[in-house]
Every structure is written in structure tokens, then in C-alpha cells.
Design a protein that fits this description.
Helix content: 40-55%
Number of strands: 3
Number of domains: 1
CATH architecture: Orthogonal Bundle
Order of helices and strands: HEHHEE
Distance between the termini: 10 Å
Strand content: 15-25%
CATH class: Mainly Alpha
Length: about 70
């Protein structure tokens, strides 16, 4: 997926982590692997979801982050 200039380094870092885990990962794992605060991750996740890069699937108290497949 071509990253738009709207994405900063932290956004790209989050997307890369999700891709490394097969396109689906728990939000808590993203916090662990980035070392960024939970509040920053939550804000970045909302942004990425709004821009259409990921989908957030709520499973109980856990958010699963999933890359949205690129349409060709």
C-alpha cells in the first residue's frame, strides 16, 4: 500500500508492526513493540482507521488491528 504524506514516522512504524505479524495484531502488542504510550497508539490507530489503512475489531476488552487489503 502506498503511504500518503499524511502519515508520520510513528504511523508508518505501527503499520510495519501490523504487517510483520501477518496483518493482524492486538493493540496492546503494538504498544509493547513500539514503546510508545497507550494514548499515542490510540490516537494513531484512530487516525489510521479514519484514513482507511486499518480496521479495528473489538473482541471483548481487546482491540485487534487488521490491515485493510489494498484494492488493485
Amino acid at each position: 500500500m502506498e503511504e500518503a504524506p499524511l502519515l508520520d514516522d510513528k504511523d508508518r512504524q505501527i503499520l510495519e508492526i501490523i504487517r510483520k505479524f501477518g496483518g493482524e495484531i492486538a493493540q496492546t502488542a503494538v504498544v509493547k513493540y513500539t514503546g510508545l504510550p497507550k494514548s499515542t497508539i490510540s490516537r494513531k490507530i484512530r487516525k489510521l482507521e479514519k484514513l482507511g489503512y486499518i480496521r479495528v475489531i473489538r473482541r471483548g476488552r481487546v482491540n485487534i488491528l487488521k490491515i485493510i487489503e489494498e484494492k488493485k
